[in-house]
């Protein structure tokens, strides 16, 4: 649970946990955080949860409510923020709080995030487009999508070419295989092609395939134009526009 | 196909509570894992609600009435895959509604990775950053895409996998159960071959242990229980900053009938 710590001249005066009810701050003694000082309005501000965010709201106070250095009417709070009211300072401790969405609107330094949290749709869009502005270098970027394709050069299989659409592509005699080998004594799973975040990898199955004439030592990243040979079948791996 | 499976969970070395949940239904060949989030004990509430909902829906529901879907399951998927997808949507609604009703549960959520093996095929439904892997012929292949900010940035070519591993934003998810009234669920199907090994795990494993190490452990320990134990030990040795949960399932060909007949004949 998040909490507020009232500080005065660097000393801790009071700690208040934030539950379901708003925490009120003001000069009047019936506030959750009463501050006996003339610079502070009777009902100065309050802090509460709204849609998973911790929010501070100024209640039309005479001298204002500040978050860090900014005077606010309303603001989303994050762990480590300071609320200033008069000469009093209220520290926000939300470390135990998993779910405050990251507010990209504020010019704050990104906090170190230890707890898992979910971005809301807008924040997600903002962050991704921000990141996209930093430059793309992906072969998967939309617009210039290239389809990884196996073109059959020779050998007995069930199609002339295969567009690789799955994470796992099997070359073998099994009825579940994408590239179905025909003929006697062919293994059910001769080799496999796996899609990873950074490309397509050819891996051994019951047989060790060759790439450009060399047997692969393990999963091997395929490049445009590579020649694959396994069980008497020759395949050309290409990215097709 | 014969399946040997086991699962283990551990609180890790840093945290005091375990927010992960998992279930194995051996009779159905259903495997479910979930990693909860939210303050206090709410992460646990979310993940166990997720797992329970999936298991109940897959075992009990007679029909699919009463579930409205934001996305209709595609017709090309197998029946089990569609059912699993509906179950995940239902779990999302349950967690979301519970959090709406109970103020102190605000912000709770969960990841969910569920696999269901039937008739040679593995159905997969997935939301979040728990993972399903398949070890086949010595190659470890991730079957799920992480719904995390850094994984999305890697897929778009904005950052490298190495930058992602060092990022402070690793815990930021783009999708989770319970965050919104509706959720987009990834589904997939893969054919299963004899000697395949399936691994489901929470990010407490994959943040601590590299994929080559995971592949090595799964190959070295042929017993699912010892493999699961080995993986959890590794995660804890590296610091165990989070809860760790693993499910290991090993697929084997049925013993051939004529062999057993021969044995019986010779006895």
What do you see in this structure?
The complex is a heterodimer of chains A (241) and B (267). Chain A is mainly β and 241 residues long. Helix content of chain A is 5%, strand content 42%. Chain A has one helix at residues 121-133; strands at residues 3-8, 11-17, 23-26, 33-34, 45-50, 53-58, 65-67, 70-72, 74-77, 82-85, 88-93, 117-118, 147-154, 161-163, 168-172, 179-180, 191-196, 199-204, 210-211, 214-215, 220-221, 227-230, 233-240. In chain A, the strands form four sheets. A six-stranded antiparallel β-sheet of chain A has the order 2-1-11-10-7-8, with no helix packed on it. Chain A has a six-stranded antiparallel β-sheet with strand order 14-13-23-22-19-20, with no helix packed on it. Chain A is rod-shaped. Chain B has one domain (2-266): 4-Layer Sandwich (Phosphatase 2c, domain 1), CATH 3.60.40.10. The model of chain B has no long low-confidence stretch (mean pLDDT 90). Chains A and B meet through strand 12, helix 1, strand 17 and strand 18 of A and strand 8, helix 3, strand 9 and strand 10 of B.
